[in-house]
Each structure stands twice: as C-alpha cells, then as structure tokens.
Amino acid sequence: xxxxxxxxxxxxxGTEIPQLGLGVFKVDPGEAQRVVEDALAAGYRHIDTxxxxxxxxxxxxxxxxxxxxRDELFVTTKLWNSDQTRGExxxxxxxxxxxxxxxxxxxxxxxxxxxxxxxxxWRSLSKIHESGRATSIGVSNFEIxxxxxxxxxxxxxxxxxxxxLHPLHQRRELVEYCTAKGIRxxxxxxxxxxxxxxxERPELTEPAAAHGKTPAQVILRWHxxxxxxxFPKTVRKERMIENAQIFDFAxxxxxxxxxxxxxxxxxxxxxxxxxxxx
Length: 278
Hints:
The protein has 278 residues and is an alpha/beta fold. Helix content is 39%, strand content 15%.
C-alpha cells in the first residue's frame, strides 16, 4: 500500500478534491490503462481525463482493474467543444466509456465565444449536477468575461476553472477573480510543458538545492502553497511518485516571491478566445 499523502481541498459546494492528480492529456489510448493503473497503485486517487483525449475507456478499465473503492477516487472528465449543444448526451457517452454511473467533476472544456454555445453547455451541466451524475461541475480555460456570462445568466458558480498556469504564465487577474468568486483554480501544464528553460533558472535550482528537491518539485510546491490543484502529466511511475512528494516541505516567502517574479505572460497552449477547434 502506498504511503503517498496528498491533501484534499474543499470546493465551494463542500466536495473534497485531492490537490494533486494525474492528467492523461496526450496519453496514448494504448498506454493509458497501464499509466492510470500505475498511478492508482502509487497512491493517486485523482484522475483527470476528457472526451477529446480519447482514453476515457482505458481510464475506466484501469479503475475497474485497480480494486480501489469508487468512493476513494476522484474522476474528472470534460465536455468537448463540438458537443456543447448536446451536453447531456455527450456526458452519458463519457459515463459509458468510463464504466461509471457518475463522475466527481464535469467541466466545459473550452469557452469558444465565437460560437456562443458555452451558456447552453453550462445549463446542461447544471442539469447533470442536479441529477447527481456529476458531484461537482466547473469549467476549463474560461476567461473573466466567459465566467461573468454563465454566472450572471444562471446564478450557478463553477467550482473550478482549469487553466494553463505556470511560473511564466501566472494569470493573476483571472486568478484573483476566481478567488473572489470562490472558484478553485486548477493548473494544467503546471511545469510549462517542458517547453522552457525553467528548470535551469536559479529561482528554482537554488530552492531545489536548499530543500533537497528537484526544480519540478519546487514548481509544484509553489502551486500547492497557493492553494491550486495541479495535474503534472507523466507516463513514468517513478516520476508520478516524485511529483507527489511536495507536501513534506515549504518554500520561504522569499523563494515564493522569486518564482512570482518570473511571470512573463508566456503561454504554451492555445489562447482560450482564439481556440476554435471543434
């Protein structure tokens, strides 16, 4: 039995969510079951997938094979862009692939304001939540204007907003807005997807040496210390374990401030208001 200790965070609807999970974005379906089985064996209890990842069935197979009780798991999936006007049907398709009768969190994947369907999607998610088939609902990649629209029109506040966020792209205004609304921020690409020289920066290498950790662990600790939920992606079991070993140390105020100062508003993923893939 794993000794990994991953704390929970409480969402505004009272649901508890593990602060660190495994994201399976770009995990090949042929490898996904093994990767998720490894994560669950290592002690992870939070798995984040999506319809467009095309590995929901493999995630479900791994859960079924794991022997881990369903009430110990936190499973997230997402509504894809082309399905925003058929949210309830698309959700049932995801449930069928996962082999589950409910998910813990269901998200609208992208706002796509150029199509004007996010509000319709959010209303569908509200109905799904009311039915009990999604314990919590939220959004992904939503900007302030997108959040304002769905909240003002429905009165339903998302529990989370999953956004690209890392030391080079800190989204401070959006994070402040979410915090004020009680929306928890989930960081995807928390390590900048390995597309930068972050791991070589002294702002990370120095605290890593001081705490006996890696630069990646320092970044994940920086996220965790600010109350964010993170999904570092890896297919290697040893890296999964390493990524979770961030709750046994704390960065100093000076170390946190030095990482804060790295913000360059540099994103590596799609701009949410330009992402038009269906």
